[in-house]
Amino acid sequence: MVGMSNFFLDPPLLGGISAADAKRHEIERKTLSDELLAVVKECQKKYGSKTELATENDSRIVLLCDTWERVLTHGLKSNSSVLKNVTDLMAGGSQEVPVFWDFAYKHLTNHEKERFSTLRHVWTNGGKGKSLLRAVLNERALERYMLMWLGDEKILEESYESWALIRDGEFAGLLPNMAAGLRTILFAISIDAPELNAPTKVRPIKVEPIIAAPPPAPPARKINAVPR
Fold this sequence. Notes:
globular; 228 residues; 10 helices; RUN_SNX29; 46% helix; Sorting nexin-29; Methane Monooxygenase Hydroxylase, Chain G, domain 1; Run_dom; Run_dom_sf; mainly alpha
């Protein structure tokens, strides 16, 4: 008979992922949410009460678009479409990184699908997703689109992992408010530029290990001297 001391249990699983992965995803959601809130505030401070156009010539606007894209692709499931993978590879993209267009396309009208599929200088799915995001910023429609994207639970479950930021009620509930805060800004961002075809670089979020502090040393005992 095998002794119980030789039997080890796997780490606890939460929704099919380990406790360590669950903690890592929680930190990712918090970090992304904080980054988005910070860049939204920066753009509001610069452009919120002015008639100055906000374009991609400002690094703040570039960071804003990049951060929204990272939020909307966090936890996005891979699209196994062979045609899509071959098209993006030929265009210099990546077949391994899922792109926001795969999800957004399911919500578009026929007119919108045609609009973003017939751009002259954007041909990859990754580029179309970036173009769409910039277009809705230009048209002050991001809040409306966010509410639409968040409102269909079935498509969210099909498209995103359970740990994705967009499926976390606490964090996802903040996204329409952040989008609404951008309505006073006059965006004029290019939506048909070849550089949008470049794959987005995934920036891993560094999670610092938690090191437990050593226990305090016990107080030294006094030893009474024995008189001679």
